[in-house]
Automatic annotation (TrEMBL):
Native species: Tetrapyrgos nigripes
GO MF annotation terms: phosphatase activity
Name listed for the protein in its UniProt record: HAD-like protein
Record region (Disordered): 241-261
Biased composition annotated in UniProt, kind: Basic and acidic residues: 241-251
SUPFAM superfamilies to which the protein is assigned, alphabetical: HAD-like (SSF56784)
A Pfam family this chain is assigned to: Hydrolase
Gene3D superfamilies: HAD superfamily/HAD-like (3.40.50.1000), Putative phosphatase, domain 2 (1.10.150.240)
Amino acid sequence: MPGPVQYVLFDMDGLMIDSERIYSDVTNSILAPYGKEQTWDIKAGCMGKPERAAALHLLSFFPDIDLDLETYLKERNRLQDLAWPTVPLLPGTRKLVLHLKKHSIPIAIATGSRRRNYELKTRAEGAQPEKREVFEAFEEKVACGDDTQYGMRGKPNPDVFLVAAKELLGRNVGKLVGVDEEGSEYLTKEQLDERAKGLVFEDALPGMQAGKRAGMNVIWVPDPNLLDVEYTGKEKADQTLESLEDFRPEEWGLPPYDELS
């Protein structure tokens, strides 16, 4: 494994909370009257993208149906808003986040989700107390896909992870945006080293790519269906886990879990 980790960045959807199931159920309920279905090959290209980019990707596979972008988004958002407050934490999330918090490891969230949706998913009336506890541990250190003050591009671009590291955690990672996998020549050795101290948790292929393009270590926790999706990108995760429950902090130079955890 690489050198010891000094800060940790989390994706949210499909990694910390079981929201990808809701995305799939809602999308397929909208497509059903047209006799269509979102397969995992299609879904893989949507995951981690900003809302409109993901919707355009989805609809590009169904040019023969009478469903425009705005109509789809309006109905999708209506159905999703009803479900977001009840979306549960995924296994291992609470244990890991609270463990890192207890040991004063800097943590932040870097999500492609819109901020209004982040609030609905994590803190809306009806959200479970344990979910509120987990997201309060981040102390508002959250970068969302529509935070326009940073001019971020969506994943697989590295922007959201660089923003989270620099703006939220104060790390010297160099230029925030516009630096892709070909941009390392514009960074100092100190900045490259600082990026390499970060650990990213992701479930989506574009998110895994974004973390690697940011120069950070990436642990990929994919839905099993993603393992069957053809992937030709050159970025590879540093470690792949079936669940956050399988993470061993000491392998990355982080404090181990207490024996009673």
